[in-house]
Amino acid sequence: MSLISDRMRELNEDMHKTKYGTGGGSWAPVVIGLVNASRWGGDVAIKSVLDYGCGKGFLKMVLDRDFSGQVKVWEYDPCVEGKKELPGPADLVMCTDVMEHVERDSLDGVLAHILSLTRVFCYLAINMTPSGKVLKDGSNAHQLQRSAFWWSVILKDKCLPFIPMPVHDRARYCAFLVSKVK
Fold first, then answer.
1. What confidence category does residue 170 fall into, taking pLDDT thresholds of 50, 70 and 90?
2. Closest residue by Cα to residue 77 from 161, 13, 150
3. pLDDT digits (tens, 9 = 90+) for 85-131
4. CA–CA separation, 89 vs 106, rounded Å?
5. Residue 62 phi/psi, 5° resolution?
6. Which of these, 80, 82, 60, lies nearest to 71 by C-alpha position?
7. C-alpha span between 93 and 50 (Å, rounded)
8. What is the rounded distance in angstroms from the CA atom of residue 50 to the CA atom of residue 60?
9. Where are the domains of the chain?
10. Quick check: helix, strand or coil at residue 21?
11. 3-class DSSP state of 111
12. For the whole model, what pTM was predicted?
């Protein structure tokens, strides 16, 4: 299973040497809401979070501050030094501003990898529009610029139980909460 080609890894590693990958902290309210909702008397409580495609790691910084160690937060990014080690599973996998960077040939492998790391929920927030960033080879940083409908078909084809989630900018983003709870 290929998660990223050598060519794309090199291009993204180069981009991550700039201010690229700094938006993760803006998704902290979503994580906080999901963690708090999971504590409302159900059988499932989110005690660990994996930031899949963490970039510079701003989501972890915010969550570590806000949760004061009550929720473990791990990071993984195949293109960022110090964050390339394959992680273990987490109750909640946050995958924000990541899927649009995945090469089409690697999409099935990446989704399978994300789901293998998901114990309870996976939150996917996907930018559907061209990026303002261009990779060294001249291609747009967003490899997959697809509609919310296209992404929902991909998830449905994988027989994944999901619900569309509200997002702050529906013109640019779509989001899905994928459940592994039976």
1. confident
2. 13
3. 988 999 999 999 999 999 999 999 999 999 999 999 999 999 999 99
4. 20
5. -70, -45
6. 60
7. 5
8. 9
9. 6-91+117-179
10. coil
11. helix
12. 0.91
